[in-house]
Design goal:
alpha/beta, Archaeosine Trna-guanine Transglycosylase, Chain: A, domain 4, Transcription Regulator spoIIAA, Rossmann fold, 3 domains, 7-stranded mixed beta sheet, 6-stranded mixed beta sheet, 20 strands, 25% helix, 26% strand, globular
Length: 426
């Protein structure tokens, strides 16, 4: 579906106390594509804060008042209580994270600001990290890590896959995709909306794309290759964040029996097989993911047994059958999506890791991962320690996503991926 063109619409006033709006989806007039900077909009509306920090997310309770001119997705000038300019952000009264900061100080984010910022993200990957020499699939925009809250973009060969989580980024996603595609010199792009936009941002929108985007793309990671479906799958279609961990796993797999739990499209399992593992099993509940994984194994001439099953139930069955592995990988989907799910989510991580550790041979390896940004590395480590205590675990390494997923020091939640490499000694 092509994006709707930008049209100026009547703005609804929000002045004085910032109230929470209806949870019905925003109307179509708010889902139009818009320019980065509207020269006909007049002066930029302002929002005054009760307290200021350097964190890029401003929650509703910290906002004292906002100009009546501000509408959903607009850029607003953010002021301290004293009247001093803090910076500029995007405004959405439907979201508890009501303002997402774009820039700090007096310089507004005009057209050139967006182009320069997007160019800096491309420059980091291509010129500093030189990722194209290793792979043709990597992250280009990592949300707050690159200064674009609510936006992720991955490159898959000649397809740019963009995922948006906030209304303001959705409204500007066509312009963003076109600039990035031009800077990357790729012909195709696709925009998809992330999950929970209705709950977190108050809108539901369809994705759209440039013309003739291929339904399947084959990418390379070192000596391995993977088939990606840009229009399907989780996130932007593939998990680039585990690239370096997939490669690192190979050193532990030769002549071992390997179990890859929540294997998705088979990344860890295939790397284990390529490295010379004796037997490799991949398990996932998503039937389509298992089919992707089988095709990827064939693409790499890797011998892997893929099982369509609930990973927790499969582990329980293997435990009862006294099946043990030299290497177990546990990489479940996000188990904590909001602060209200912290306790339940930590209990799930505990249960998963307790069962997974029971399947590791004495002296074997457990690679356990969490992609829940709200759970810190220290909290994850403590949870896993409690779950594996009877196996006398020791940490060989702590890792996360690759450098194409930069972490802003003023927003440590962007360090969402956490991986513990454990040897279970008993």
């Amino acid at each position: 579906m092509p994006p709707r063109p930008y049209r100026k619409h009547k703005k609804r006033p929000y002045q004085g106390k910032v109230r929470k709006e209806s949870r019905l989806p925003l109307g179509d007039e708010y889902l139009v594509q818009r320019p980065f900077f509207d020269a006909n909009a007049g002066s930029t509306p302002s929002a005054r804060l009760k307290t200021t920090t350097k964190h890029p997310t401003v929650f509703r309770k910290r906002i004292a008042k906002v100009d009546s001119a501000a509408s959903h997705g607009d850029v607003v000038k953010v002021l301290a209580d004293s009247g001093e300019t803090v910076g500029y952000g995007v405004w959405n009264p439907r979201a508890e994270a009501t303002i997402r900061m774009l820039s700090w100080g007096d310089i507004p984010p005009d057209e050139s600001w967006w182009s320069d910022k997007l160019g800096a993200a491309v420059d980091l990957r291509n010129n500093m990290l030189k990722l194209s020499s290793q792979t043709d699939a990597y992250r280009i925009i990592n949300a707050e890590g690159d200064g674009f809250p609510g936006l992720m973009a991955d490159l898959y060969d000649d397809v740019l896959s963009v995922q948006v989580f906030t209304l303001a980024m959705y409204q500007r996603s066509e312009a963003i995709a076109k600039i990035l595609a031009k800077k990357l010199n790729v012909p195709h792009w696709i925009v998809r909306c992330g999950p929970m936009t209705i709950d977190q941002e108050g809108f539901i929108a369809e994705g759209f794309q440039s013309g003739r985007v291929p339904e399947r793309v084959t990418i390379r990671e070192g000596k391995t290759r993977f088939e990606i479906h840009p229009f399907e799958g989780h996130k932007t279609g593939f998990f680039c964040d585990q690239r370096e961990n997939r490669h690192r796993l190979q050193q532990f797999c030769k002549d071992n029996d390997v179990l890859d739990l929540c294997c998705y499209s088979g990344g860890f399992a295939i790397n284990a097989a390529v490295a010379g593992a004796r037997n490799v099993t991949g398990v996932d509940l998503d039937e389509e993911a298992i089919e992707f994984a089988k095709r990827n194994a064939k693409l790499n001439k890797a011998k892997v047994k893929f099982v369509h099953a609930d990973a927790f139930h499969y582990m329980r069955d293997m435990h009862q059958n006294e099946k043990r592995y030299g290497v177990v990988i546990l990489d479940p989907p996000k188990l904590i999506r909001g602060r209200g799910e912290m306790h339940e989510g930590q209990n799930k991580y505990f249960d998963f890791n307790q069962l997974a550790s029971s399947l590791v041979k004495p002296g074997g390896m457990l690679l356990t991962c969490s992609c829940s940004g709200l759970l810190s590395m220290s909290e994850f480590t403590m949870t896993v320690r409690a779950a594996t205590a009877d196996r006398n675990p020791r940490i060989l390494s702590r890792t996360g996503a690759g450098p194409d997923h930069p972490v802003q020091m003023n927003c440590l939640e962007t360090e969402y991926l956490k991986c513990l490499w454990l040897q279970l000694q008993s």
